[in-house]
Amino acid sequence: MMRQAGRYMKIYQELCKKHPTFRERSEKVDLAVEISLQPWEAFQPDGVILFSDILTPLSGMNIPFDIVKGTGPVIMDPVRGMDDVKKITKVRSIHWSPYDRVRVVNVIP
User: Fold this and answer.
1) Alpha-carbon distance 80 to 95, whole Å?
2) For residue 62, which of 77, 48, 44 has the smallest C-alpha distance?
3) Bridge partners (DSSP) listed for residue 66
């Protein structure tokens, strides 16, 4: 629902003006929760889909990337060999991840 809602909901469009990068909106827990709850507050559906991106865990694995407008995701140093694999770190914390949002959204009455 949020994928379509972001295209027409004025509240989401206004938030995008204040926070223009997709990474900021998807990686900052408070913003991601706010965006996740926008369709719920407007339509009160049975569930909420967490606003996130499939690449979010890369930051926690020491894989630098950016989402370039008009291009999409760009991995700065693509993994091409064992030396690159050795640079990848094990994810040790959930505090940077979309799972941190579950605790916040879960307290909504």
Assistant:
1) 28
2) 77
3) 74
- Across the range 8-19, mean pLDDT stands at 92
Residue 5 has pLDDT above 80, yes or no: no
Where does 1-109 have alpha helices with state H? Answer: 2-8, 10-18, 22-27, 29-43, 57-60, 82-87, 99-105
Q: Please list, residue by residue across 9-42, b when 16 or more beta carbons sit within 10 angstroms of its beta carbon and e when fewer do.
A: beebeebeeeeeebbebbbebebbbbbbbbbbee
For residue 45, give Cα distances in angstroms to 5, 33, 40, 50.
13, 16, 6, 13
Structure tokens at 88: 């990848």
Both tokens of residue 55?
A: 């690449």
53 in Cβ contact with 67 (< 8 Å)? yes
Residue 79 contacts residue 88 (beta carbons within 8 Å): yes
Length of the chain: 109
| Cα torsion angle, 11, 17, 22, 24, sign | negative
